């Protein structure tokens, strides 16, 4: 059903735009996002993937392969090597699927699940980087200076973009093919 819907164009385009905006916003707003000792990570790709899961309705977008592809592009373009995102993006999509089984779909439950997704994503990144010695931040500093600002930024993104993304999906799903 996915290949017959307008989402076959809308979803990859939105994923590309979110990949582009993650890097662009981080570059343009670098003084705000990475002002010592604070650091905020823009996670628009995760926002797009999570909201796509909720708004796809009966059309099943192959989110896991797209999430892995987005992870490859994100890793190669922004770091130059294959890293964590190739595994973490699909893992977060799967976490969203598991958590959504236990809650009804509403704005508050979706934002709660997105909150959990961001915490899981950023914490797994922190643990992996600590394990290999890339970061030497203790857990308290991580919670205050990285996780809290990242959550604040991405929850603002969520509140601002929830209804426009929902409108795009509604339009794509109700539009008749000509």
TrEMBL record:
<keyword id="KW-0812">Transmembrane</keyword>
<dbReference type="Pfam" id="PF04093">
    <property type="entry name" value="MreD"/>
</dbReference>
<dbReference type="GO" id="GO:0005886">
    <property type="term" value="C:plasma membrane"/>
</dbReference>
<feature type="transmembrane region" description="Helical">
    <location>
        <begin position="141"/>
        <end position="165"/>
    </location>
</feature>
<keyword id="KW-0133">Cell shape</keyword>
<keyword id="KW-1003">Cell membrane</keyword>
<dbReference type="GO" id="GO:0008360">
    <property type="term" value="P:regulation of cell shape"/>
</dbReference>
<comment type="similarity">
    <text>Belongs to the MreD family.</text>
</comment>
<feature type="transmembrane region" description="Helical">
    <location>
        <begin position="105"/>
        <end position="129"/>
    </location>
</feature>
<keyword id="KW-0472">Membrane</keyword>
<dbReference type="InterPro" id="IPR007227">
    <property type="entry name" value="Cell_shape_determining_MreD"/>
</dbReference>
<protein>
    <submittedName>
        <fullName>Rod shape-determining protein MreD</fullName>
    </submittedName>
</protein>
<keyword id="KW-1133">Transmembrane helix</keyword>
<feature type="transmembrane region" description="Helical">
    <location>
        <begin position="67"/>
        <end position="93"/>
    </location>
</feature>
């Amino acid at each position: 059903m996915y290949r017959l819907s307008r989402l076959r164009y809308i979803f990859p385009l939105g994923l590309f735009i979110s990949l582009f905006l993650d890097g662009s916003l981080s570059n343009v707003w670098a003084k705000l996002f990475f002002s010592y000792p604070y650091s905020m990570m823009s996670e628009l790709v995760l926002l797009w993937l999570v909201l796509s899961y909720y708004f796809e309705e009966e059309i099943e977008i192959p989110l896991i392969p797209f999430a892995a592809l987005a992870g490859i592009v994100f890793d190669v373009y922004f770091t130059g090597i294959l890293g964590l995102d190739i595994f973490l993006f699909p893992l977060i999509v799967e976490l969203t699927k598991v958590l959504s089984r236990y809650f009804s779909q509403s704005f508050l439950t979706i934002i709660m699940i997105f909150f959990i997704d961001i915490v899981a994503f950023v914490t797994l990144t922190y643990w992996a980087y600590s394990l290999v010695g890339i970061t030497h931040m203790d857990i308290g500093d991580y919670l205050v200076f990285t996780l809290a600002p990242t959550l604040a930024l991405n929850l603002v993104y969520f509140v601002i973009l929830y209804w426009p993304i929902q409108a795009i999906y509604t339009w794509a799903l109700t539009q008749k093919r000509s």
